[in-house]
């Protein structure tokens, strides 16, 4: 398939209107009231969830306590940090934000700074992420694929769902999986990871099912996804979330309807301190759990608590912007928007260089979201920035149908390496984190189902120009996981479906290093957007000069009239 060959992206795009780690010392020195202001609009978690967590994962909690005792003996600083952790269950916010490292189950995990304790998050991960799936049938039993997508937004009746049959795994592959699982249960995670990698290689060579010629692509994908997700848990247990990241993306790409794949991706993002992305993964996990027929309320509540914790963590650690959620009832008018800005400025006086309310998208919060009985309470998201320039860029991007990041001043000239590096400094470090946060409470895109994926692929192109191959691969794998999930998250038009297919084909070609005479779809869209921006700038400049000339003529006319009257 030629990349983008069947998609008229120009017509699609032009039809639209013009519409991580930061220093821990900085966090420790932040004023307590600033942290409190950032979190005071977020409701508490339900009490029954907290009660449930006290009764689960006893063995894991004992390991955590043991790790805390070991950590306390290392230094006076660690001692103070441990005392702070113990007081978190009674204090919603701490006076100082300090990060310490625990090592339960061979994992390095930064202590959270929100009022949801670290132990609570570890308990959720023990119950839902690190569950020991001894049999591959475990994956298939829970993934009941829908005959038709449930609509959480229209309240329509849902169609009946039937569980697919479990594929018969090839005997050679089954032995390899059993051996790897035995090593995993023995907590020999390094050997288990190596054996799961061998099993994945066998699967890629066609050794997947007992009857390869009768196997469906879905069967092979599900088996490969099972192996990928086992590699995720192995690397997390080894304290290597960077190695787990691509496996978490690929497990979703291969089996996007399985909620645990998304939750494991959230755990990887949490360990990498990418909390906004962890929040979005948890949100999707909760939605997928409902969509595929999940009925156990306590599981959904645990996922929502995890989602809430990640949102709070992202807000608390972020220094460049702050946010406020306002319950949405009906369409707001201009004067209401002004009142929201005034309220935001009073609550967050350190983030008033540029304030705007996301105009095209209502947000949801885990505390008030109920997928089975839509519509859930929706919120307006208001953002305030310390940097005016960044705030204006974000506001401009939020009004577009398809996102274009480029600051390129000459749209018909090739971009230089220096421009790419400067662009990466702006987009990668300042723009993408904000956009990731915005999407942590926004399940779908309003204008185009693929908007966020195009953002990621633009960013991957920048990384490619800078020869950052590893980072580029991670971003593309993440984009492909998003593309695979989109049809489950929202109804898509025929144009969106064609765009999705073109993006998927080009992303796959890029990831596998296949060259093409044609430009990638997202680069074509970007080029059109740059030209469009250039034309708008020319138009704005012309109209501005026209107004200035008219004003000068009027001024000269008045001056001549005054001189005539004086004589």
Automatic annotation (TrEMBL):
UniProt xrefs under Pfam families: NYD-SP12_N
Keyword hit for Cytoplasm: no
GO cellular component, one term: acrosomal vesicle
Keywords associated with the record: Cytoplasmic vesicle, Developmental protein, Differentiation, Golgi apparatus, Spermatogenesis
Domain of life of the native organism: Eukaryota
InterPro entries: SPATA16 (IPR029161), TPR-like_helical_dom_sf (IPR011990)
Subcellular location: Cytoplasmic vesicle, Secretory vesicle, Acrosome; Golgi apparatus
GO biological process: cell differentiation; spermatogenesis
Region (Disordered): 65-96
Coarse class of the protein's main subcellular location: cytoplasm
Family: Belongs to the SPATA16 family.
Name the UniProt record assigns to this protein: Spermatogenesis-associated protein 16
Organism this protein belongs to: Anas zonorhyncha (Eastern spot-billed duck)
């Amino acid at each position: 398939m030629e990349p983008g060959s069947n998609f008229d992206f120009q017509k699609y795009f032009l039809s639209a209107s013009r519409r991580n780690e930061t220093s821990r010392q900085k966090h420790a020195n932040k004023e307590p009231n600033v942290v409190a202001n950032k979190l005071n609009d977020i409701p508490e978690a339900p009490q029954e969830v907290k009660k449930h967590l006290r009764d689960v994962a006893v063995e894991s909690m004992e390991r955590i306590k043991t790790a805390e005792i070991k950590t306390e003996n290392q230094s006076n600083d660690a001692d103070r940090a441990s005392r702070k952790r113990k007081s978190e269950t009674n204090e919603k916010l701490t006076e100082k934000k300090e990060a310490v490292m625990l090592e339960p189950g061979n994992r390095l995990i930064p202590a959270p700074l929100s009022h949801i304790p670290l132990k609570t998050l570890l308990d959720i991960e023990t119950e839902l992420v690190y569950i020991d799936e001894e049999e591959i049938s475990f994956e298939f039993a829970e993934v009941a694929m829908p005959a038709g997508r449930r609509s959480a937004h229209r309240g329509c009746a849902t169609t009946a769902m039937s569980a697919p049959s479990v594929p018969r795994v090839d005997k050679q592959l089954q032995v390899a999986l059993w051996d790897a699982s035995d090593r995993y249960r023995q907590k020999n995670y390094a050997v288990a990871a190596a054996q799961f990698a061998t099993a994945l290689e066998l699967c890629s060579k066609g050794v997947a099912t007992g009857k390869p010629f009768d196997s469906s692509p879905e069967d092979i994908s599900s088996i490969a996804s099972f192996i990928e997700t086992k590699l995720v848990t192995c690397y997390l247990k080894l304290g290597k979330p960077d190695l787990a990241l691509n496996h978490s993306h690929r497990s979703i790409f291969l089996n996007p309807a399985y909620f645990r794949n998304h939750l494991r991706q959230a755990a990887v993002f949490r360990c990498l301190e990418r909390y906004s992305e962890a929040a979005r993964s948890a949100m999707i996990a909760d939605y997928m759990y409902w969509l595929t027929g999940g009925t156990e309320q306590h599981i959904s509540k645990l996922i929502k608590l995890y989602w809430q914790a990640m949102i709070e963590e992202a807000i608390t650690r972020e220094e460049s912007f702050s946010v406020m959620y306002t319950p949405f009832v009906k369409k707001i008018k201009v004067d209401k928007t002004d009142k929201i800005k005034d309220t935001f400025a009073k609550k967050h006086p350190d983030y008033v260089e540029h304030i705007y309310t996301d105009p095209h998208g209502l947000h949801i919060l885990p505390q008030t979201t109920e997928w089975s009985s839509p519509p859930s309470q929706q919120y307006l998201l208001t953002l305030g920035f310390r940097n005016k320039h960044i705030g204006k860029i974000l506001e401009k991007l939020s009004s577009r149908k398809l996102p274009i990041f480029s600051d390129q001043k000459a749209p018909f000239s090739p971009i230089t390496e220096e421009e790419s590096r400067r662009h990466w400094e702006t987009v990668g470090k300042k723009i993408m984190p904000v956009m990731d946060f915005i999407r942590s409470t926004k399940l779908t895109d309003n204008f185009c189902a693929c908007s966020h994926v195009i953002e990621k692929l633009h960013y991957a192109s920048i990384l490619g120009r800078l020869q950052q191959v590893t980072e580029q691969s991670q971003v593309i794998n993440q984009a492909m996981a998003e593309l695979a999930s989109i049809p489950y998250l929202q109804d898509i038009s025929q144009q969106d479906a064609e765009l999705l297919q073109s993006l998927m084909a080009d992303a796959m070609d890029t990831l596998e290093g296949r060259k093409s005479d044609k430009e990638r779809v997202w680069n074509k869209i970007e080029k059109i957007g740059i030209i469009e921006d250039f034309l708008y700038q020319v138009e704005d400049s012309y109209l501005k000069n026209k107004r200035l000339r008219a004003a000068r003529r009027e001024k000269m006319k008045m001056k001549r009239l005054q001189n005539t009257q004086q004589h």
